[in-house]
């Protein structure tokens, strides 16, 4: 029986634009394609995000869940010092959005915690092996190194780790910390995909399989994919096709996407 992605289709096609967040169409197209492909390939595991804000990316992970899989949201929520102004309401907005989207989370699926206090063992105990994990919590050097360590501790052999803001000009230490971390763990972790905001990383044995899938999946037909080198290894650079970008822009102008969930 094929997986049911009706709610995910609705979220990606119509609702995602209504959730404030910090990434764009190229990222959600890539995450959606990778996550569904994992399911088609029988790659099972939990899904998690460190730093969920109002849930924009986390909801993709939650909607990718299959029977027996959990999605874990980790955040300081309203305790974060940056929870002010347009970035405020993290606690309320996240839970309101879950309700509006019909996303059901168990008690152990939301972890309000400062990740700097979380050990790799505690992370493993909380979520076990993950097939997808997004690292988008604290953006300073110490936080990035620490959170990447937590993600590495739970990443399954064929899982995918996403490092947000690796290429973001506003957060130079994200790049520095991630480069140091990935250089040190090059035998365990290999970047395989670059999008505008994120670096996607897998275990070295799985990285080339993901690159092959990206080049051949009909879901990303029309995308602009090219090969680059990073840390001396091949990596895919992914940009949206002009047609998709234009279509989205026109639909936005025509009010196709509701402004609120
Ligand atoms: C950039 S936002 C995340 C955006 C979200 N991933 C999205 O797709 O829209 C960063 C989040 O990390 C959380 N955060 C920052 N430092 C943290 C820490 N030390 N532990 C846990 N969460 C943290 C903040 O509360 C905030 O919600």
Topology:
Elements: H1 6-15, H2 25-40, E1 46-50, H3 58-64, E2 71-75, H4 90-101, E3 110-112, H5 120-127, E4 130-135, H6 141-154, E5 155-164, H7 172-184, E6 190-194, E7 198-202, H8 204-216, E8 224-230, E9 233-239, H9 242-253
Parallel strand pairs: 1-2, 1-4, 2-3, 4-5, 6-9
Antiparallel strand pairs: 5-7, 6-7, 8-9
Helix pairs in contact: 1-3, 5-6, 6-7
The structure holds S-adenosylmethionine (SAM).
S-adenosylmethionine (SAM) binds at residues 21-23, 49, 51-53, 56-57, 74-76, 80, 90, 114-116, 136-138, 143.
Report on this structure.
With 261 residues, this protein is of the alpha/beta class. The chain has a single domain (6-253), classed as 3-Layer(aba) Sandwich (Rossmann fold). Helices cover 40% and strands 20% of the residues. It has 9 helices and 9 strands. It has helices spanning 6-15, 25-40, 58-64, 90-101, 120-127, 141-154, 172-184, 204-216, 242-253; strands at 46-50, 71-75, 110-112, 130-135, 155-164, 190-194, 198-202, 224-230, 233-239. The chain has a 9-stranded mixed beta sheet with strand order 3-2-1-4-5-7-6-9-8, sandwiched between helices. Helix 1 (6-15) runs antiparallel to helix 3, helix 5 (120-127) packs across helix 6 and helix 6 crosses helix 7 (172-184). The longest helix is centred in the first third of the chain and has 16 residues, at 25-40. It is globular. The mean pLDDT is 94. The structure holds S-adenosylmethionine.
């Amino acid at each position: 029986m094929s997986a049911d992605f009706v709610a995910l289709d609705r979220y990606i096609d119509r609702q995602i634009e209504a959730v404030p967040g910090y990434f764009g169409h190229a990222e959600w197209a890539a995450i959606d394609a990778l996550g569904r492909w994992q399911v088609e390939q029988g790659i099972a595991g939990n899904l998690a995000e460190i730093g969920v804000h109002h849930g924009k990316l986390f909801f993709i992970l939650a909607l990718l869940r299959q029977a027996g899989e959990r999605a874990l949201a980790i955040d300081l929520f309203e305790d974060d010092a940056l929870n002010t102004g347009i970035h405020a309401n993290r606690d309320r907005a996240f839970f309101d959005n879950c309700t509006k989207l019909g996303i059901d989370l168990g008690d152990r699926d939301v972890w309000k915690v400062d990740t700097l206090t979380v050990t790799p063992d505690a992370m493993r105990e909380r979520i076990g092996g993950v097939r997808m994990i997004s690292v988008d919590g604290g953006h300073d050097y110490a936080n990035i190194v620490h959170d990447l360590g937590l993600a590495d501790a739970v990443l399954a052999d064929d899982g995918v780790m996403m490092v947000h803001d690796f290429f973001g000009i506003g957060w130079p230490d994200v790049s520095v910390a991630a480069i140091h971390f990935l250089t040190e763990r090059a035998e365990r972790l290999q970047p395989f995909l670059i999008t505008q905001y994120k670096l996607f990383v897998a275990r070295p044995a799985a990285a080339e399989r993901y690159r092959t899938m990206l080049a051949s999946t009909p879901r990303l037909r029309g995308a602009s994919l090219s090969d680059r080198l990073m840390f001396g290894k091949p990596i895919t650079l992914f940009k949206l096709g002009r047609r998709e970008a234009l279509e989205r822009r026109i639909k936005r102008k025509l009010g196709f996407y509701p402004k609120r969930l």
